[in-house]
Write a structure and sequence with these properties.
Structural class: alpha+beta
Radius of gyration: 17 Å
Shape: globular
Number of helices: 5
Distance between the termini: 29 Å
Strand content: 15-25%
Number of strands: 15
Strand order of the largest sheet: 8-7-9-14-15
Largest sheet: 5 strands, antiparallel
Order of helices and strands: HHEEEEEHHEEEEEEEEEEH
Length: 272
């Protein structure tokens, strides 16, 4: 392994299966929350639903207590990009809310995020969400054994740039994941392909584009968690945890393992 690979955790096939168990809890929790998003619900209520579902599934919330974070999910609304603290904020028709969720099973982590419209949203904001989610899948689809981490980054950026005049947040990135939620390597959402550590069996990555309707610049609020756009433009955020097996790509936090999306993109599915 080279200098770029220091600190990277390579999992055994059995450990990847354990990560799939955590990923399924995360995927199921996010789908549950998607069904509860509505005008009039407070983000703290979504957090309580998430914690209950994670614990009743035999898992532990990754986020709760992480460096002091007070919630089991991050709930980021409108111009909040990531790391929003769930609380008394009540969602209103036309809002968009990014829900980021993590769970631990037998010491292994899963991490994923969705952005959900509240009631009816504008066409511009719906398109932002579509482009952001598709860019995540294009990034995952660009990964192959023997490739490099920034192959993912380049594919995300290329799809976003083709979709319109959006801001790609640079200060926050995807990451390695496994026995800890955040591990090397970072997975930026922009850049030239062919750079960074090699993609090998047993490497698990979380890909999470954060895209805005305006500037890429962000600010950190006084709570020292919530990241907002500097220009007040709205943002979207999607994330999945995935790995590449000798058989193909396996999205550990997607309920179907990513099979449908990967097949549509011409990528071989490597899950079980």
């Amino acid at each position: 392994m080279g200098l770029l690979d220091r600190g990277i955790e390579i999992k055994s096939p059995e450990q990847i299966v354990a990560m799939r168990a955590a990923g399924l809890v995360v995927g199921q929790t996010l789908e549950l929350l998607r069904g509860h998003v509505r005008a009039g619900i407070a983000t703290a209520e979504l957090d309580a639903i998430a914690e209950d579902n994670i614990r009743s599934s035999g898992a532990t919330p990754s986020f709760l207590g992480y460096h002091g974070f007070p919630g089991s999910i991050c709930a980021s609304v409108n111009d909040e990009v990531v790391h929003g603290i769930p609380g008394g904020r009540v969602l209103a028709d036309g809002d968009v809310v990014s829900i980021d969720c993590g769970a631990i099973v037998a010491g292994w982590h899963g991490d994923a995020a969705i952005t959900v419209p509240v009631g009816s949203v504008s066409a511009e904001r719906a398109e932002l969400m579509r482009v952001t989610e598709e860019s995540m899948w294009r990034g995952i689809a660009a990964a192959h054994l023997g490739g490099r981490v920034t192959d993912i980054s380049h594919a995300v950026e290329r799809h976003v740039r083709a979709g319109g005049s959006y801001g790609i947040v640079e200060d926050y990135t995807g990451h390695g994941i496994g026995s800890q939620m955040h591990q090397p390597p970072n997975v930026p959402n922009y850049g030239r392909p062919g750079k960074g550590p090699r993609l090998v069996p047993g490497l698990a990555l979380a890909v999470e584009p954060m895209i805005t309707l305006g500037s890429k610049e962000t600010d950190l609020l006084a709570d020292e968690w919530t990241v907002v756009t500097s220009d007040g433009s709205w943002a979207a955020h999607f994330e999945h945890t995935f790995t590449i097996t000798p058989e193909g790509t396996w999205v550990l936090t997607a309920l179907d393992g990513g099979e449908q999306q990967l097949t549509e993109l011409g990528v071989r599915f490597g899950g079980r």
